[in-house]
Amino acid sequence: MKTDRVNKSKLGLWLIGAYGRISASVMAGLAGIRRGLYSKVGLVSELDDFRRLDLVPLEDIVVGGCDVRKSGTVEAAESLETGAHIIGEKNLDAIRDDLLRVQEDVEEGILLNAGEAVERFSSVKPGGNGMHIDAMIAQVQERIRRFQARNSLRDVIVVNLASAEAFGDAAAAPETLAELRRAIASNRKDVLSSGILYAYAAIDAGYPYVNFSPSVSSEIPAIMELAEERRVPHMGKDGKTGETLVKTVLAPMFAARNLKVLSWISHNILGNRDGAVLSDSRNARSKLENKAAALQNLLRDPGIDSQVRIDYVPSLDDWKTAWDFIHFTGFMDTRMIMQFTWQGCDSALAAPLVIDLARFIEQAHREGLYGVQRQLACFFKAPTGVHEQNFAKQYRMLKRHET
Predict the structure, then answer these.
(1) DSSP 3-state assignment of 72?
(2) Residues 6+ away with beta carbon under 8 Å from 253
(3) Residues 302, 222: Cα–Cα separation, whole Å
């Protein structure tokens, strides 16, 4: 049970997908910052706008989590360094002991309706190997509680960093909390997924939850109802780190200057495991929908030819490139073109946002806030409960709420 939370100083960060590249960057980044190896550039929560806030210090964040693969935290960091070269060999040696300590708090995850693309690299049998859904949820809750007790943590933030799941239709999930509980009790695995079960397990046990993945999870009405009942804060979904971030900054410019966008074509290429999973159209569906929806929301013109493509290029490893072609009309119906290329390291872009979200949502929980945390919309492609997609306006929501 979660006891003596108030008297303990440290915060737990429980990562679903703990052996993934983003998680490796979170672990390496926090350890490196503590040891003075890296600056705090990239962390929104370190901006002057939030300097007065009582956010948990970075050195007080303890990392644990789960994964469906057999690997290790050191192996994950070594793979990241070999492929992306963002940690630094000397720095990796310096934080090796820190990573080994995290390893002690990483356990086996669960897998349900994630799709063949995820199952191919999983060592966990889909559907809990015959385990009842009740038992799968209880297992997740017990592992989070064990992590909390072992490290004397006052709170734990659960963040979903798992690969995109093939269960992409939220309408297939139970709509109300009562229906969800009946589905769990009757072991209806056909209408549930790992993302839904993780969200249910965390929030039902009283832990704040962040859905950084594009998978169906805490944004469905049944889980939102549970969060209200349990008085737990949550937010999602699909972290906004690269090309979509640029779109939500750039598209308002076209609208404000009354420039009519005719076509906006986006071509994304990336390596790493996320790229491999997204090469399956069933797993990529939610990601593609989230990318396209942001643009439609901002320009509000159903006639725009908006195409989004994601291709897997293994040689890129953790780096990704997005090429955007924008065809638009200006004064005197003059047709013009704008193009931009975005190149970045996927994990180095995402990891600081995970840390930011943990700090912001922990503060919200400490202040007694619960339910959807709309002020965190600027961190997501498809922010739960928020229609506004203009990044500048979303950022003002965060500043107004937190200062």
Answers:
(1) coil
(2) none
(3) 31
Largest separation between any pair of C-alpha atoms in the chain: 69
> Cβ distance 241 to 350 under 8 Å?
yes
pLDDT in tens, the chain (403 residues): 233 334 358 999 999 999 999 999 999 999 999 999 999 999 999 999 999 899 999 999 999 999 999 999 999 999 999 999 999 999 999 999 999 999 999 999 999 999 988 888 899 988 888 899 999 999 999 999 999 999 999 999 999 999 999 887 778 899 999 999 999 999 999 999 999 999 999 999 999 999 999 999 999 999 999 999 999 999 999 999 989 999 999 999 999 999 999 999 999 998 877 776 766 666 666 666 767 778 888 998 888 999 989 899 999 989 999 999 999 999 999 999 999 999 999 999 999 999 999 999 999 999 999 999 999 999 999 999 999 999 999 999 999 985 4
Of 178, 211, 186, nearest to 196 by C-alpha is 211
Q: Fill in the DSSP letter of residue 380.
A: B
Angle between helices 89-103 and 73-84 (to 10 degrees): 150
Closest CA to 105 of 161, 48, 159, 67: 67
The rounded distance, in Å, linking the Cα atoms of 382 and 17 is 20
Q: Strands 335-345, 319-329: parallel, antiparallel or unpaired by DSSP?
A: antiparallel
CATH entry 3.30.390.10 includes domain 243-345: no
Q: Dihedral through CA 280, CA 285, CA 286, CA 291, nearest 10?
A: 110
Partners of residue 12 on adjacent β-strands? 62, 156
Place of tokens 């971030």: 245
Strands 233-236 and 319-329: unpaired
pTM: predicted TM-score of the whole model, two decimal places? 0.93
Domain definitions of the chain by residue range: 10-239+348-402, 243-345
Of 152, 55, 16, 33, the residue nearest 361 (C-alpha): 55
| Beta-carbon contacts of residue 191 (< 8 Å; ≥ 6 apart) | 172, 173, 174, 183
10-239+348-402 CATH fold: Rossmann fold (3.40.50)
Please report where in the chains the tokens 């690299």 appear, as a residue. 121
